[in-house]
């Protein structure tokens, strides 16, 4: 889709024009799968431009259209995009729900790369709660799925976060930053909340 290509090339205003034109045409023919993809691409453009009011609206519509389709792959990838936008909006409970949907759908159609990305997001979600052990386990499972796929960078980041978790658990008072999933608009290191008696008491 031309709009997505232009988005990757950072010509995002032009991308939005093409994506919105495609959206209107797809609405006319009632193609739910492609309409979900169009809305997802629109949400990504808004997200990368940090237009958080617009990005959730677009991804919510993408999810509605994905649910109407019978395409489990599209449902999985839309759910992952939805979860990252929700994390950025600090709606972690809803984000976790969409990660679980993505993982279930990806396992159903057997796409290892999507499974790996869902597990990586799950690890990040656990880090946001200060749950280091479950984060470690999720990242470890993601590494197994990433291995042998085209996304060697995702595998490398998960391994790095596992090492950082070991570092943090070895010295709980040390300030350790973790790599966020690549689609996150904030590329700075993530510092989990301080935890008291296993309960997070502050955010990032």
Question: Could you please describe the fold and organization of this structure?
Answer:
The chain has 9 helices and 2 strands. The protein is mostly helical. A two-stranded antiparallel ribbon has the order 1-2. A hairpin with a 2-residue loop joins strand 1 and strand 2. The longest helix is centred in the C-terminal third of the chain and has 19 residues. It starts with a helix and ends with a strand. The relative contact order is 0.09.
Looking at CATH, which topology of the largest domain would you report?
A: Serine Threonine Protein Phosphatase 5, Tetratricopeptide repeat
Task: Characterize the overall form.
Answer: globular
Number of helices: 9
The counted number of beta strands is 2
Give me the oligomer status: single chain
Terminal residue distance = 36 Å
Short description:
The chain is mostly helical and 204 residues long. The protein contains nine helices and two strands.
List descriptors.
single chain; 204 residues; mainly alpha; Serine Threonine Protein Phosphatase 5, Tetratricopeptide repeat; two-stranded antiparallel sheet; 2 strands; 2% strand; globular; disordered N terminus; disordered C terminus
Topology readout:
Layout (H helix, E strand, L loop, with lengths): L1 H7 L3 H18 L2 H17 L5 H15 L3 H17 L3 H18 L2 H17 L3 H15 L5 H19 L24 E2 L2 E2 L4
Antiparallel strand pairs: 1-2
Helix pairs in contact: 1-2, 2-3, 3-4, 3-5, 4-5, 5-6, 5-7, 6-7, 7-8, 8-9
């Amino acid at each position: 889709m031309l709009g997505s290509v232009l988005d990757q090339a950072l010509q995002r205003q032009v991308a939005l024009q093409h994506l919105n034109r495609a959206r209107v045409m797809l609405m006319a023919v009632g193609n739910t799968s492609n309409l979900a993809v169009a809305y997802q691409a629109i949400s990504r453009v808004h997200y990368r431009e940090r237009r958080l009011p617009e990005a959730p609206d677009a991804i919510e519509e993408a999810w509605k259209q994905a649910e109407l389709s019978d395409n489990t792959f599209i449902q999985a990838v839309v759910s992952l995009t939805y979860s990252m936008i929700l994390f950025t909006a600090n709606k972690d409970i809803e984000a976790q729900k969409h990660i679980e949907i993505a993982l279930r759908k990806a396992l159903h159609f057997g796409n290892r790369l999507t499974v790996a990305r869902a597990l990586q997001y799950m690890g990040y979600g656990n880090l946001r709660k200060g749950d280091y052990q479950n984060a470690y386990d999720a990242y470890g499972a993601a590494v197994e799925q990433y291995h042998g796929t085209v996304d060697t960078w995702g595998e490398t980041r998960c391994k790095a976060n596992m090492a950082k978790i070991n570092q943090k658990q070895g010295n709980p008072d040390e300030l350790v930053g973790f790599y966020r999933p690549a689609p996150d608009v904030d590329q700075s290191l993530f510092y989990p909340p301080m935890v008291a008696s296993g309960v997070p008491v502050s955010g990032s």
